[in-house]
């Protein structure tokens, strides 16, 4: 199965890629994603397989952060604290 993703709209890209991720985790075979970018419409393709869904998840999170910035939201941040609170 091939899915087209337009990088100009990170919110739609994240939603499309999330569907690909869910199918991969559910055990479906390899998924091909075609990215279109820029005003000249350069296209590239990536094939994700069940063996490395974490790579796809990293791409999804990148698009989700871009989407949040576009909508004026702050990016998610994760921090680890040392020591304890008394």
Largest sheet: 3 strands, mixed
- Report strand %: 15-25%
Give the termini distance in whole angstroms.
Answer: 54 Å
Q: Could you say which structural class the secondary elements and strand pairing correspond to?
A: alpha+beta
Oligomer: single chain
What does this structure look like?
The protein is α+β, with helices and mostly antiparallel strands and 86 residues long. 40% of the residues lie in helices and 22% in strands. It has helices spanning 10-25, 53-70, and strands spanning 2-6, 31-37, 42-48. A three-stranded mixed β-sheet has the order 1-2-3, covered by helices on one side. Helix 1 runs antiparallel to helix 2 (53-70). The longest helix is centred in the C-terminal third of the chain and has 18 residues, at 53-70.
Give me a quick take on this structure:
The chain has 86 residues and is an alpha+beta fold.
């Amino acid at each position: 199965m091939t899915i087209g993703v337009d990088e100009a709209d990170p919110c739609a890209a994240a939603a499309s890629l999330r569907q690909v991720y869910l199918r991969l985790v559910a055990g479906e075979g390899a998924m091909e994603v075609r990215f279109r970018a820029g005003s000249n419409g350069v296209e590239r393709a990536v094939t994700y397989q069940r063996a490395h869904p974490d790579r796809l998840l990293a791409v999804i999170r990148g698009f989700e952060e871009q989407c949040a910035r576009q909508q004026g939201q702050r990016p998610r941040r994760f921090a680890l604290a040392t020591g304890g609170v008394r």
